[in-house]
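Let's practice the habit of predicting before peeking. Look at the sequence and jot down your guess about where helices and strands might fall. Then scroll down.
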Amino acid sequence: SAQFESPLMSLLNQLCSEGHDITAPLEEAVAMRAAMQQTDKVLDEIRLVALKAKSGRLE
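Done guessing? Here is the structure:
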């Protein structure tokens, strides 16, 4: 299967190869990715708590 390629990262790489300074947008993109990954973890934890509560096993 094809691996996902971020259009944003592709664009940043292209701009960098053309000599542009991409420091700030790259840092923002990396920070946003980290925030989204953390959000995914928290939502998974919430989902597990909800499933336990629904089944009456919340303790």
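How did you do? DSSP finds two helices and no strands in the chain.
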